[in-house]
Task: inverse folding
């Protein structure tokens, strides 16, 4: 039996996933070394639809899911994706988010440090991106916490706000995956 080199297997796996439509060709992340918390280079995404929340987005396949009404949280080891839906009177802007939502995030989280708040235009519409770091809750077994990097995208549609938050250990390179999920968010 002939053994194939790992690079060939990775290339075949990525191309196969693209051909099956599981990973869009324009979103396949560049090959890189893995560190704890990094999404794998061949991560498969699936569509999650929330009828209660009136939205959909692409999320990593195989992650654990907890749904509470219109809110949902997906987790895998050290990473997380969460959508929280709430009534809102007006559409958020970077200027309005800084003193309200960003300040609330800083107070509610553990050692939160807001690093950037800005308006962004995504296929799903206008959003406000809040970039911040925080400290995780202590691990139930070890009692240790770790520093996390987070991106929160605030979307708005007709009196409803949705906050899509993605998080991973600080220093991981999940930019491609996070942008892909944020760009996939759609109101139904």
Result:
């Amino acid at each position: 039996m002939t053994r194939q080199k790992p690079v060939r297997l990775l290339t075949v796996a990525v191309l196969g996933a693209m051909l099956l439509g599981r990973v869009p060709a324009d979103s396949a992340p560049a090959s890189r070394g893995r560190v704890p918390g990094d999404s794998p280079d061949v991560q498969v995404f699936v569509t999650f639809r929330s009828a209660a929340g009136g939205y959909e987005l692409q999320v990593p396949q195989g992650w654990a899911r907890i749904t509470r009404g219109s809110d949902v949280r997906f987790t895998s080891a050290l990473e997380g994706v969460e959508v929280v839906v709430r009534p809102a009177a007006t559409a958020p802007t970077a200027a309005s988010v800084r003193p309200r939502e960003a300040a609330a995030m800083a107070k509610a989280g553990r050692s939160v440090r807001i690093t950037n708040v800005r308006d962004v235009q995504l296929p799903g519409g206008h959003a406000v991106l809040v970039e911040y770091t925080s400290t995780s809750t202590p691990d139930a077994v070890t009692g240790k916490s770790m520093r996390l990097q987070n991106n929160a995208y605030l979307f708005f549609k007709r009196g409803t706000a949705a906050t899509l938050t993605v998080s991973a250990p600080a220093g991981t390179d999940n930019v491609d995956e996070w942008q892909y999920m944020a760009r996939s968010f759609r109101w139904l």
